[in-house]
C-alpha cells in the first residue's frame, strides 16, 4: 500500500515508519519540517507527490500541561489540522487513520472505557483531542480512530532528550538518587509504540472496517506498578516509594482511571511482556 505518514519523526511515528517499511509498504513520512499541517493549504502538495491509499496522522500537540495555557495551539494541531487531513484524504479516496488518547475520558469509571463511550475530558489536551476525533469518521472513504495510552518506545518524543520516556526516566532517577517517588493512584494501560505500530499495520491491511479502535497492551497498572516492574527487571537499588497524586501536583488535571477497553481487535500482549522485550 502507498502510505502517507504525518508526524514520522515523533515517538510513535518513528516506529510506524519502520514497521510499514519492514512490512513492505511504500511509505512517505513527513514531519513539521516538510509540512506544517496547521496551515491547510500546505497539505495538498504532499498528497500529489505520493497519491496515498492510506493517510496516517501521528502528529500531536502532546504537552499535556502546556496545553492548559496554550489552548489555541493545542486545538490548531489536535483538532483543526485533523479536519484538513481528513478532508484531503477523502478527496483522494484514501483511508484516514488518526491517533487519539485515553485522555478524552474523565477517568472516573473504574470499569474503563470501551469504543462506544462518549468522550468527557478533564483537561485542555483531552478536550482538543476529543474535538479532533469528530473529524475522523465523517467520510465514506473510511476513517479509523485509534485511541491508545501511556506510550513509550525506543524513539524519543520530540523536544525531549533522546529516549527519555517514563521507563528511561525511572532508570535514570534510580541511578542518581537514593529514593524515587512514583504516583500510585493513577491507573492506565502502558503501551509499547512498537506493538501499537504492528497493530496499526494489521488494522489497515487486515480487512478491518472503519471505526473506533482501542489499541493498548493488556493489563491495568498504576505508574508505581510500572516502576516496580522496572525495578525488578533491572535490579535497581534505589528505594521506590509510592505516593498519591496530591503529593506530585501537575498543572493539568490527570484522569485517575484512564483505562481503554478493547472489544474489537485481537488483544495486544500484556504490558509486562512488552516491557520485558523493550528492556532486553
Ligand atoms: N505519548 C503518549 O503517551 C500518547 C498517549 C496516547 C496518545 N498519544 C497520541 O499519539 C500521537 C503521537 O504521540 P507521540 O508521543 O509519538 O508524539 P510526539 O513524539 O510529540 O510526535 C508528534 C510529532 O508531531 C509533529 N508535529 C507537531 N506539530 C506539527 C505541525 N504543526 N505540523 C506537522 N507536524 C507537527 C512533531 O514535530 P515537532 O517536534 O517539530 O513539534 C512530532 O514529530 C499523538 O496524536 C498523541 O496525542 C500519545
- Quaternary organisation: single chain
Helical content band: 25-40%
Fourth CATH level, the homologous superfamily of the domain at 2-152 and 189-214: NAD(P)-binding Rossmann-like Domain
How big is the Rg?
18 Å
Q: Looking at the structure, what is the overall shape?
A: globular
**Bound ligands:** NADP nicotinamide-adenine-dinucleotide phosphate
In the CATH hierarchy, the third-tier topology of the domain at 2-152 and 189-214 is known as: Rossmann fold
Q: CATH class of the domain at 2-152 and 189-214, please?
A: Alpha Beta
SSE order, one letter for each helix or strand: EHEHEHHEHEEHEEEHEEHEEH
The number of helical elements comes to: 9
Across the major sheet, the strand order is 2-1-3-4-5-10
Strand content: 15-25%
Quote the average pLDDT. Answer: 95
